[in-house]
Write a structure and sequence with these properties.
With 194 residues, the chain is α+β, with helices and mostly antiparallel strands. The chain is 45% helix and 14% strand. It is elongated.
Length: 194
């Protein structure tokens, strides 16, 4: 028995889509990047809320690593170094560096900043306090002596080691998985159930 012309057309259409999946892969990549960038505004990725900066530190809050970066650059510590939120948005480069690529039939999401993996999964970082940093820090602590208990130790250590907590922003969430199933169903012309 020969297939009916309608069934043949549907199968041919599905085969054509499966042979050229670039459009749907581009749409999925764009959606994944959008969800990752939204995490910076929400301070959460899907169901996983991001920890505040220095989550175990008592008040007054001090982003010590941020202060070291500021004073090493020759400036005074920025006001945002003394609040615990938002996290991971100092320069905006981490968020801007999120992108995707397509290799065959695979969408690969990535972040270009060298510290992206540590920001995403947590980990250790090390900073040196330069001579410029020492001078700037001393000037700041003379003006703001209440921060000496939190920052004074920097003069007596060769390096600052910081253990970052995980703040995931790359990958799949329950919401993105549901959206991908729907997108695929729409693309194939099927009614998809998530």
């Amino acid at each position: 028995m020969n297939p009916t012309p309608i069934a043949s057309a549907v199968i041919a259409d599905l085969q054509a889509k499966l042979n050229a999946p670039e459009n749907i892969l581009e749409a999925i990549g764009g959606m994944l990047v959008s969800a990752s960038k939204d995490a910076f505004d929400k301070q959460a990725f899907g169901e996983v809320p991001w920890a505040a900066r220095y989550p175990t530190q008592d008040a007054p809050k001090v982003n010590v690593a941020g202060v070291v970066a500021d004073v090493n650059a020759g400036g005074q510590p920025k006001a945002r170094r003394f609040v615990d939120r938002p996290a991971l948005i100092d320069s905006g480069n981490l968020r801007k560096g999120i992108s995707y690529s397509i290799e065959g039939s695979t969408v690969i999401e990535n972040a270009s900043e060298p510290y992206a993996q540590r920001a995403h999964a947590g980990g250790e970082s090390t900073q040196f306090l330069s001579q410029t940093g020492r001078t700037q820090l001393a000037r700041f602590l003379r003006q703001r002596p209440e921060y000496r208990p939190r920052l004074g130790f920097l003069f007596s250590v060769p390096t600052l080691t910081t253990n970052s907590v995980p703040r995931p922003f790359i990958g799949m969430t329950t919401d993105t998985e549901t959206k991908i199933v729907r997108m695929l169903g729409d693309w194939l012309g099927l009614k998809a159930e998530a």
